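To assess whether ligand presence alters the predicted conformation, the chain was also submitted together with zinc ion. Input:
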Amino acid sequence: MALNIPGYTLLRKANGVLKRIRNEQRGLILTPSRRIARVAPPGERIVAMTFDDGPTKMPPSRGTIPDNGRVWTPAPTTGDAPTSVGGGVHTAPPSPYTASPPSPDSAGGAGLTEHLLSVLKEFGARGTFDVVGSTAENYPDAAGEPGGQYVFGKKYDHYAAFGLDDMAGAQACQDLIRRIAREGHELTNHTYRHIIYGKSRAMYSSRVTMSGLAEAVADLKRLHTLIYELTKIEMRFTRPPHYVDKMPDGHTSFNACEAMGYHYLSASFDGGGYLPSAASYAETVEAMVRPMREALEADPSCLAGQIIFQKDGYNMSKHTPIADALKLHLELLEKYGYRVITVSELVARSPFEDVRPAHDCFEAVRELDKAGFITGFRNNRFYPDRAMTRGELNTVIATPVFNLTGDARPGNASAAHISARTYDLTGDARPGNASADATGEAVPSRRSRAIKIDKKDQASVKQISARASEVFDKTEGQPASNKRGDVAVWLHKLTVLNGLC
Ligand SMILES: [Zn+2]
């Protein structure tokens, strides 16, 4: 059953409304792990670009469009195992999962990820590769029809394609992972097996899901460890498969982020490289480029601080329009004076969505964020003009205060505990971030605007408050007001004076 595009568009619109509501709710939760979709436009035209679901050794697929004299036609979903891809010998997965062999015409060409890396290099652009580990364990399964959301598998996703799981992912493409790192791009954790975290309301209803937080965290750690072994890089961001957050055990993607010390990597501008193909390959590429061209024509600065979603793999029709659209995207961005940098660099330039460079607290907030102090909310806002509650203040100041008083020793449980906690302003101070909680039970959230500190934290909070009074009494000045921005300016001054920031 092929997916019809208008229906899909409608679903996405409805989903967009839900997303906005959820994002407002995230603005009530103070956390070390924020969902970053975009940041406040910094003083220059900079943008980030994420490439999902790779890396892959599979060659670009343009359907029947000639590729430098070669023609690569996506093969049928059943058939003999491929014998040669990209000049190397490809060992087929065991029957009956063999499918989609590329035609011999594609042999000797660069794989898609290599091709994307070359294009990025040509433009001096640095991408953010949101990689998977491997989907090879995601069987038994059946392939879906091209053009629909199940094209990669009915119960699971399979990358690069159903039956060709060993042609994609960090495990099978270790040289590509090393090359991505070596060429200055960022690697982020798109989970090892790309299993959806929980049931999705409208789409992917036949998918097998994670059982809960413990399984999700184990999966993330597996890829984190592999990437560290290959590159010595500690990843800092994760994007849940298909952005589904709610797990069957009541935990969410945010709890997984907190357990891993990650931020949640979202995106704000859709490159469209995953959508089903149009009538021709040329139109498919144009459908990816047009929205960016029109947006920039209407407002040349509109992409500053945004994160653009791209695909490092096939779209739902098993084509790779990104192979040609990327160059056109980069030409447009260059024409309008943009630099493409990694997500980490973007966040280092301007961490929050609502603190603009012109705001009095911009520098202070940026430096505090860099130093790792908790300052933000789940929706990546800082709310500089909102009053800071006592609970928030305790949470935010815990790390610097314990550093100032020499109590930030390893093993000082209360300092680490309080500063790493997520506080849910919608209800309880909900456990769920510490790795110990990965196997714990979910605590249901109750609606309430006031921050609550649970009983076991109260002693720590008192201790922090007492310490804070000692330290702050010896420091000149007080915040200009109780606004979060003013408190940040004052806290930054304090940490600079004491050599912490
Ligand atoms: Zn994905």
